[in-house]
Specification:
Elements: H1 6-20, H2 33-48, E1 58-59, E2 69-74, H3 90-98, E3 102-106, H4 116-125, E4 131-136, E5 152-157, E6 164-169, E7 175-181, E8 187-194, H5 209-231, H6 245-262, E9 265-272, H7 283-292, H8 297-301, E10 319-323, E11 331-336, E12 350-355, H9 356-360, H10 380-397, H11 399-410, H12 416-440, H13 451-472, H14 478-486, H15 491-496, H16 499-518, H17 520-539, H18 544-569, E13 578-581, E14 585-588, E15 593-598, E16 601-606, E17 621-622, E18 627-628, E19 636-642, E20 647-652, E21 659-662, H19 665-680, H20 682-685, H21 693-698, H22 707-711, H23 723-730, H24 736-739, H25 750-759, H26 773-780, H27 783-799, E22 808-815, E23 826-831, H28 834-855, H29 871-887, E24 890-897, H30 907-916, H31 921-933, E25 935-940, E26 943-944, H32 968-986, E27 990-993, E28 1000-1003, E29 1005-1008, E30 1011-1018, H33 1026-1046, E31 1057-1061, E32 1063-1065, E33 1070-1072, E34 1082-1084, E35 1090-1092, E36 1094-1096, E37 1101-1104, E38 1107-1110, H34 1116-1134, H35 1140-1161, H36 1166-1183, H37 1192-1196, H38 1210-1228, H39 1231-1247, H40 1268-1278, H41 1301-1305, H42 1313-1326, ...
Helix pairs in contact: 1-2, 6-7, 10-12, 11-12, 11-27, 13-16, 17-18, 23-32, 23-33, 25-26, 25-27, 25-28, 27-31, 28-32, 29-39, 30-31, 30-32, 32-33, 34-35, 34-36, 35-38, 38-39, 42-45
Length: about 1450
């Protein structure tokens, strides 16, 4: 026997072990030497073929199948056959061992006439499982044996067979499909397909599947030709030379998928595609996936990880499980097994675990799963009844008088007895409101009600009762007989039906109910139309017609919105399971960090490094202080020794399964309560500047003890206090404008109360007590009741005490990433009492922010402020880099991201920030004490927990301004503004001036909520200033990081990035420097642990504020992101049957609205925009019953001119979005307008044109690079648009017959872009724009010494800035002289004697305009700054 290597023997042993573990299966293979030899021979053969023997498992680890899971697998078996040395098929063994429910075998190479299929079915049945096998193979007599090339076989095992509704087998043996029924008339269509590996034109054998399919396609063409001949029609040209079985399979699958979706079945395609769509030669598969809108969940779920090959004789991935987007949310695990891990084959197995309930649940026509409210405001009769009952209760309990008396008592001082009396009264009012709501109507569950829906449901109950009686062979009950009378059914006829007939009638009743449920919203509308007129007249409504129309519109709109939300975002899934890690210590090799799992969060410990800029490759010593962080995906279990001054990494284990699923109610609640409590304590637990003694004193008594001293600037600060802490405290000192602000006392007027509840969205979740917004909005409509409740709302804030009802909070956990339920990846959203939250909105989001804006907030904070949008700071970033490219300066940006910014805020410090802008102490005391006393439960899929968490004596303080609270965004805005003011005290401003105007781009920072960008740069510079700029940026960024720590913030260094615009000379021009070697920055935390910040290449993109922006203005990543979102929406639209109105609304109100935001600042080319338009049109035009080949002039044209009015031309839409935004910000003429105008001025100077660059757009500017402004100008030229903008700078013609040199050069016939670039470079070096600035004072010639080779003449500019140039070469001068001869010096001979260049048209008198260069002499009035 040949000796084998240790590695090969290991693989053989693994396969033998897999077979041995199947002992529980009858007729298993004998574990003898014969089997061992077969495995070894197979592995030897694969090695001899040069196959890839190192294919490892990827994706999620395969574990024992859990309850409620459907496990589907795809395995190319390389032919299914009965081997002489085994009694049980290896396919059957794999099914049993891996607990498969659905398994697809493409290329089974099996005839439908043989015994192998019967053997497989018998062996599976022998295990006690039901089985259903669907097989497709070519119908031909190729061989006398069972072997039949190609073909597919799918086995359904166990309870999944009960869902099988219908199957189909392709007569060519390429694919089969099976429909699995689900709820609400929906389901899954599973397709197994095999795509031949031979490409078109291959000389394949006659007995191959490829040749058979070619023969069938030829026969099809022949039959079609004969049919046309019989009909006397023209016979088209033969296409036999273009026959392509691989492409034909995709065409036929597309038809099958379309049919499946029309019948409301979602597609799971399990296919050996013999192509890798991620490679360059996988375009056909990629195009097919895009066309039918199927997703690759293995790739998407494990994007960024290495998804290995699935075929042993290559490095490509050939086997796929593709599915509709709507099924992605039901995936629990997906991955591939290692080679031979499932069975002996040259392909690996791909598997997916689906949550059965989620996958087969009806989604599109399912009602909301939570009970609806008792009534909605649109039901005016219910609102009237509710108010009537409540007013009766109010009169009975004398609420108005009692509230008035209580208010008078509080004026004489706050006592515990008064507070108790207030809370008792509040409890009585709450009970009365809930009593009135309950008396009005019961809560409704499920679908919109209508008589037909009720009748259909009643009918189902009737037939189920009859079926039960006949099955049990008992008489039909009397109650069921009465139901028959109400349904107008003949009970004698029903009694004569046998059991099968009754069962058939029951199914028909269920189908009828499903149809009515699907049309429940339409039925509701129809019922309202038929009955509302009579109801309204009976109530005496005069304007019943408009009310009815409004109800109809609202009902239809709610129905469409509900369907589209489920379609695009997936159905809302309750939190009925989570994942928690197994173990305590973990290690990440990628990040060189260790993590400790502590009560639901991961504490990250950084490696100790020998120098701040060096992170060791194999660290084993780590700091003892930590911060919370999302661990890297490559983390593995580790053993760590904890010492006083360091942590020592002792052991790192191999990758293994480190997560376990928790679905027990009590355990889920316990884990989440512990996690939320620990998460909100992070700022208090972690050491930082917020623990400075002065800051601790500031936090005492809800921040009110030192407030007066801090605000008037008299607080005593120890000399040893950190300078950033001093700067932050001093930034709180009130200015003269702030001292004049009106005080906010906490009193809420009736008018404010009514307005606040009028604007809030009715269906907003709130109120653990059950007092939801519908009830409050209804109460607020009554002036008398609104006055009482406004007073009750005001008293706690006016006198600084706590409403006990407001201290009850529910934490709702949201998935940060869909489908990821790992414990640390859940976001906390707090549900507070509606009146408490509304009061905070009135006092803080309305009154406080008004005061703050009046006093003047920092212009560099854009979040949560009126008339400021996220695209404004994004535009400022864009214009800064655009200015840098035009002026060729070195400029750098640090993009910071804070960790859990709202959850790390201290309410006591937020109170100090609020006090700076006029909020009274009692308001702050009430707010702070309420937060401190809060007890928080958690809501899961099992309900609201009885257990709660909150502040406990002796435990770290639970900090955090709750997400979902009405004041949190405003308070963060104020605190961030104060932090930026403190930063301004420490660091100078970066000023990027307009070349000739009075405006400038002024920057230190640029922030939107927690995304803050810090800037550094140098105007007057050379190419070697990068190190100086980066050091300046590092100092500024470190200062901002330290300032954020003072208020409890923490910078997530691993999310931060740095972008640098610098330049290098090519000898011909300056180009952006892409070499970042040796360039970087390092920041430290409060304890000195260093982190190297990610340095992006100029072509690398940083995602911020919804955009991917690159220093060099490339749009590759941004385009892929926008195109991906468009495809995702199109995929969702294709997977459902949409009516015209639904498709139009999905297009206009969702897809286009979402796309508009991105298009505002994008710079997509016309070709890119056309590809986006094509994707949208080919999806939505058929859904809207419009031919996709309709002329685009008709599709895009206005309705008044006979068009369809669909604005899906992305290139035109991009121009519209950009122009609308540009006009808006220029009209407001604020800081963004300054930035845009300054950048336009820089472009004007760089272009060398005298005509305004956005007003005269006919001449292309090819020598200024690329950017948003230049792309905008190109679009304007395409659509013949012009923009005349005020306050712009432009160079002036200096005298008669003067011209702008570059503008004249650009009009030379046949001039090349390269020549324009060289001429522009020489002009920049000369520092001239106009011909008059280059010519002599007489205006007749250009002296030769200025433009000849070797000349050193340069003008001295009077502008505030000039683009950086390079030393010109002889080629620069030669091209420049050529351009002069072609434009202004046409009389000069290229080969003549070297002399001065005479102007073709001498210049005349000087104009009284500003001069751009210095001259040797001036007229007296010009030197004195006067005009003649």
């Amino acid at each position: 026997m040949k000796r084998v290597s240790k590695k090969k023997q290991t693989k053989i042993n693994r396969m033998i072990k897999r077979v041995q573990e199947a002992e529980g299966i009858p007729n298993l293979v004998n574990r003898d030497r014969t089997n061992r030899e077969r495995v070894r021979t197979y592995v030897d053969r694969l090695d001899h073929d040069g196959s890839n023997q190192d294919i490892q498992a990827t994706g999620d680890e395969l574990i024992a199948k859990e309850d409620g899971i459907i496990r589907m697998a795809l395995q190319n078996p390389n032919g299914i056959r009965i081997r002489s040395d085994e009694r049980t098929l290896q396919e059957v063994a794999a099914i049993q061992q891996l607990q498969l429910d659905v398994v697809a075998f493409p290329e089974c190479n099996l005839s439908t006439r043989g015994q192998t299929r019967e053997v497989m079915q018998t062996q599976i049945s022998a295990t006690g499982e039901t089985v259903r096998i669907v097989q497709a193979s070519a119908r031909t007599e190729i061989t006398v044996s069972e072997y039949q090339p190609g073909g597919v076989l799918t086995a359904f095992i166990g309870k999944i067979t009960g869902r099988v509704e219908e199957s189909y087998r392709d007569p060519w043996g390429r694919y089969s499909w099976t429909r699995l029924r689900g709820d609400r008339g929906e389901g899954i269509q599973q397709i197994t397909a095999y795509r031949v590996c031979q490409k078109a034109g291959t000389n394949a054998g006659v007995n191959t599947s490829y040749s058979y399919q070619i023969q069938q396609m030829l026969q099809e063409e022949l039959d079609r030709t004969r049919q046309l001949q019989r009909e006397g029609r023209t016979i088209p040209t033969s296409t036999r030379s273009k026959l392509n079985p691989r492409r034909r399979l995709f065409e036929d699958l597309e038809k099958e998928i379309t049919k499946a979706r029309d019948k409301k079945f979602r597609v799971v395609l399990m296919m050996d595609a013999n192509e890798d769509w991620t490679k360059k030669d996988g375009k056909d598969l990629k195009a097919f996936m895009d066309k039918v809108q199927l997703r690759d969940p293995l790739y998407e779920r494990h994007y960024g990880e290495e998804v290995t090959a699935t075929y042993a004789r290559g490095k490509k991935r050939l086997d796929y499980i593709l599915m509709d987007a709507a099924l992605l949310g039901s995936i629990r695990r997906i991955g591939t097994l290692g080679l031979h891990e499932a069975m002996l084959s040259d392909h690996v197995m791909v598997y997916v675990d689906l949550d059965e309930k989620e996958a087969f649940d009806g989604h599109l026509n399912r009602p909301v799963r939570i009970p609806s409210r008792e009534f909605i405001l649109a039901q005016s009769d219910k609102c009237e009844k509710f108010m009537k009952v409540f007013l009766e209760q109010a009169e009975m309990h004398n609420y108005g008088r009692r509230i008035e008396r209580l208010s008078e008592k509080f004026k004489h001082g706050v006592t515990d007895a008064l507070v108790k009396e207030y809370n008792n009264l509040d409890q009585q009012i709450q009970n009365s409101i809930l009593h009135a709501a309950k008396k009005t109507i019961k809560k409704k569950f499920g679908y919109n009600r209508s008589p037909r829906l009720g009748k259909a449901g009643y009918g189902v109950n009737f037939w189920k009762s009859v079926l039960s009686a006949k099955t049990l062979n008992i008489p039909i009950p009397e109650k069921t007989r009465r139901m028959a009378e109400e349904l107008l059914l003949d009970i004698e006829y029903v009694e004569e039906l046998n059991t099968p007939q009754t069962r058939r009638r029951t199914r028909e009743a269920v189908e009828e109910l499903r149809e009515v449920q699907e049309r429940a919203d339409e039925e509701r509308v129809q019922w309202i139309e038929e009955n509302y007129q009579d109801i309204a007249r009976a109530r005496g409504e005069l304007d019943w017609k408009s009310n009815m129309d409004k109800m109809l519109r609202d009902t239809k709109q709610r129905a469409i919105e509900k369907k589209l939300t489920v379609l695009t975002k997936g159905s809302r899934r309750s939190l009925d399971w989570i994942e928690i890690p197994i173990g305590q210590w973990f290690y990440s090799h990628t990040n060189k960090e260790i993590y400790k799992y502590d009560r639901g969060v991961f504490e990250c410990y950084a490696a100790q490094s020998p120098s701040p800029s060096l992170i060791p490759d194999a660290p084993w010593r780590f700091y003892t202080h930590h911060h919370l962080k999302v661990p890297h995906d490559d983390m593995v279990l580790a053993t760590v020794q904890e010492e006083d001054d360091q942590l020592i990494l002792e052991t790192v284990y191999r990758p293994s399964m480190i997560w376990r699923t928790v679905n027990d109610t009590r355990e889920i609640e316990m884990v989440l309560l512990e996690r939320n409590s620990r998460h909100l304590k992070q700022a208090e637990i972690e050491e930082g500047r917020c623990h400075d003694e002065t800051i601790r004193r500031m936090r005492e008594n809800q921040g009110t003890d030192l407030m007066d001293e801090i605000l008037n600037g008299t607080v005593a600060i120890p000399d040893a206090t950190d300078e950033v802490i001093v700067a932050w405290i001093q930034a709180h000192e009130q200015t003269e404008e702030e001292l004049k602000l009106p005080k906010i006392t906490g009193e809420i007027t009736t008018e404010q109360f009514q307005k606040a509840f009028a604007v809030v969205t009715e269906n907003t979740s709130s109120s653990p007590s059950g007092l939801h917004y519908t009830l409050w909005k209804c109460l607020a409509r009554n002036d008398k009741v609104a006055g009482w409740l406004a007073r009750m709302m005001s008293l706690p804030f006016m006198y600084g005490f706590v409403n006990e009802r407001w201290t009850k909070v529910i934490d709702v956990m949201l998935e940060k990433k869909q489908g990821n339920r790992k414990i640390h990846m859940l976001r906390i959203i707090a549900l507070l009492e509606a009146d408490f939250n509304t009061a905070l909105k009135i006092l803080f989001s309305q009154q406080l922010i008004k005061n703050a804006e009046k006093a003047g907030l920092n212009d560099e904070q854009w979040g949560s402020r009126k008339d400021r949008m996220a695209m404004d700071p994004a535009m400022r970033n864009l214009m800064a880099f655009e200015y840098g490219r035009y002026m060729r300066i070195v400029i750098a940006m640090f993009a910071a991201d804070l960790t859990a910014c709202f959850d790390r805020m201290f309410p006591s410090l937020s109170n100090v920030s609020a006090g700076k802008f006029g909020m009274e102490k009692n308001v702050l005391l009430s707010r702070g004490r309420t937060i401190q006393k809060m007890r928080r439960a958690v809501r899961t899929g099992h309900g609201v927990s009885e257990a709660t968490y909150g502040n406990e004596e002796g435990e770290p303080e639970i900090a955090g301004e709750l997400q979902g609270k009405g004041d949190v965004a405003i308070l963060y805005c104020l605190q961030s503004s104060i932090t930026l003011d403190a930063h301004a005290k420490l660091f100078p401003e970066l000023v990027l001036p307009s070349p000739g105007g009075d405006r400038a781009i002024r920057k230190r920072n640029n922030g939107y909520v927690d995304d803050v960008n810090t800037w550094a740069g140098k105007i007057e510079q050379d190419l070697g200033d990068v190190e100086e700029v980066m050091y300046d940026l590092q100092v500024r960024a470190q200062g901002l990081t330290d300032l954020n720590e003072v208020s409890g913030g923490s910078t997530a260094f691993h999310k931060c990035a740095c972008q640098l615009l610098s330049w290098r000379s090519t000898g011909k021009t300056l180009e952006i420097n892409y070499d970042m070697e040796g360039v970087g920055m390092v920041l430290t935390d409060a304890k000195g642990a260093a982190s190297r910040i990610r340095m992006l290449s100029p072509s690398g993109t940083n995602k911020g504020l919804g955009y991917f922006q690159a220093v060099d203005a490339n749009q590759k990543v941004e385009y892929e992101e926008r195109m991906g979102k468009i495809k995702k929406t199109c995929s969702a639209a294709n997977s459902a049957r949409l009516q015209y109105s639904e498709a139009k609304q999905l297009l206009e109100r969702r897809l286009l609205m979402q796309t508009r935001y991105g298009l505002t600042l994008s710079q997509f080319t016309k070709a890119q925009c056309e590809r986006m338009s094509a994707q949208i049109n080919k999806t939505f035009l058929p859904l809207m019953r419009i031919n996709r080949h309709m002329p685009r002039a008709v599709v895009y044209g206005p309705v008044r001119w006979g068009g369809l009015g669909l604005n899906t031309d992305m290139y035109c839409l991009q121009l519209q979005c950009a122009m609308v935004y540009l006009v808006r910000v220029l009209r407001w003429d604020k800081i963004v307008a300054d930035d845009i105008i300054t950048a336009i001025d820089a472009l004007q100077l760089r272009s060398g044109f005298v005509s305004p660059v956005l007003e005269e757009v006919s001449t292309p500017i090819v020598h200024a690079g690329k950017g948003w402004l230049l792309n905008l100008r190109a679009m304007m030229r395409e659509y013949d648009v012009s923009a005349q903008i005020e306050h712009l700078w432009k160079p002036s013609l200096q005298r008669e017959n003067d011209v702008a040199l570059l503008e004249a050069f650009s009009k030379i016939d046949g001039i090349k872009p390269r020549e324009m670039i060289l001429a522009s470079e020489f002009r920049i070096w000369l520092r001239v724009t106009m011909l008059s600035e280059l010519a002599d004072e007489q205006g007749t010639k250009i002296e030769r010494y200025k433009i000849m080779n070797g000349s050193e003449w340069r003008a001295t500019t009077t502008l505030k800035g000039w683009p950086t140039g390079i030393e010109p070469t002889d080629e620069h001068r030669r091209v420049f002289r050529h351009c002069l001869r072609a434009t202004v010096c046409t009389g000069m001979n290229k080969y003549g004697a070297v002399r001065d260049y005479e102007l073709s048209t001498p210049m005349g008198r000087w104009y009284p305009v500003p001069r751009a260069i210095e001259y040797s002499a001036y007229r007296i009035y010009e030197r004195r700054g006067r005009t003649p």
